[in-house]
Amino acid sequence: MTFPQSITSPDIQKLFKTLGQDHVRFVGGVVRNALLGVPIGDIDLATTLTPDQVIQKLTAAKIKFVPTGIDHGTVTAVINGTGYEITTLRRDVATDGRRAVVAYTDDWAEDAARRDFTINTLYADLDGHIYDPLGQGLPDLEKRKVRFVGDAETRIQEDYLRILRFFRFHSAYGKGAPDQKGLAASAKFAPKIKTLSRERITQEFAKILMGTSPQKILKVMQDHKILPEILGKNFDPDRIGSELKIEKILEGCDKDVFFCVRLFIALGFLFKGNGKYSNYLILNKKQLSILNDLVKIKIDTKRLQSQEMEKLLYFYSWNSVAAALILSAVKDNISPATFKKTWQIFKDTKRPVFVISGKDLMALGYTQGIDMGKKLKALEKKWINSGFTLTRTELLS
């Protein structure tokens, strides 16, 4: 296999030379994605060297490093601002469904046997030679089959996060129906998801929800009682398919907007701050603000005019209004072509800025206090009711 130039860059070549080409290989996603011809994310390396030996060699070569996961055998080398995780070959000694106790090994097959899916058990050297220690990775990758290494139940009991990873990887790389043994094992141990940290669940679920075509795998997860474990209810996954069609025509939208719209749909168009989801997912302040606003904002996209847009933008953030518009289009089955016109009106609308301040009223003799506050509110209401057209002079006269 011929790697893209970005994978065999001078920085990578330096790492291989530093560690010794017989001791290090590319592993996991970089090999899998290169073989599939899809974009490659992080570049991870596996090595027969112990973490101490890795650190010694990096130090001698004056390569900056961070002991990011030293307890699990991982050292991150940093070259020209880019991090490369270098992990010593491992075998599991003990697992409890959340974390593993590992021992180092120099056996590539032992390291492969502890990984989650067969398509992630592939290694490659700098020259592009592929190594498939278990003899299952390449055939499964060719068939686009996402399958657990060995016994599915055993792999899941080692780390229950693998339930969510199974669905995410099938959505991203699989073809046809999910592996039946993996599906059955995931359904069996679904209640164990609650034993995981909210951070880990959120990270995996967000990747599923924000996939390129998540509605199909979300339906499978719902049908097999995986999704209700997290969200607490059922919903129509095809609604997210409708959202995707709308999303494709939009520009300039924050990713949090799309995430919140998809999550709101997945929650059955209902959102409560203390819903079951809150036991599993961590939302940031911006996401919570958008979701809470979606409960309040009522929009009829069929009759929406620019003046109403101004009012919405005055009371809510741009992101919240954008999310509400998308959600309304999904609810009302608005076609992407029709919605594009509404979206253009929205993009062209500027948020009104109130033309009166406390200083203006003080100039008229008001003093700071309740009376001035009431007067300011009354003028603001009058200005809003005028469609934001009354001028400062007209309001103060």
Number of helices: 20
CATH-defined topology of the largest domain: Beta Polymerase, domain 2
Biggest sheet statistics: 7 strands, mixed
Give me the Rg, rounded. Answer: 27 Å
The run of helices and strands is HEHEHEEEEEHEEHHHHHHHHHHHHHHHH
Rounded average pLDDT = 91
Brief account:
The protein folds into 4 domains: 1-143, Beta Polymerase, domain 2 (2-Layer Sandwich), CATH 3.30.460.10; 151-234, Orthogonal Bundle (cca-adding enzyme, domain 2); 235-351, no CATH class; 358-396, no CATH class. The protein has 20 helices and 9 strands. It has helices at residues 10-19, 29-36, 51-60, 108-113, 137-143, 152-158, 162-173, 180-188, 198-209, 214-223, 227-231, 238-247, 255-266, 285-296, 306-315, 318-331, 336-348, 358-363, 370-385, 392-396; strands at residues 24-27, 44-47, 64-69, 74-79, 82-88, 90-95, 100-104, 123-124, 130-131.
Task: Report what the structure shows.
With 397 residues, the chain is α+β, with helices and mostly antiparallel strands. It has 4 domains: 1-143, Beta Polymerase, domain 2, CATH 3.30.460.10; 151-234, cca-adding enzyme, domain 2 (Orthogonal Bundle), CATH 1.10.3090.10; 235-351, no CATH class; 358-396, no CATH class. Helix content is 49%, strand content 11%. It has helices at residues 10-19, 29-36, 51-60, 108-113, 137-143, 152-158, 162-173, 180-188, 198-209, 214-223, 227-231, 238-247, 255-266, 285-296, 306-315, 318-331, 336-348, 358-363, 370-385, 392-396; strands spanning 24-27, 44-47, 64-69, 74-79, 82-88, 90-95, 100-104, 123-124, 130-131. Strands 3-4-5-2-1-8-9 form a 7-stranded mixed sheet. Helix 7 (162-173) packs parallel to helix 9 (198-209), helix 10 runs antiparallel to helix 12 (238-247) and helix 16 runs antiparallel to helix 17.
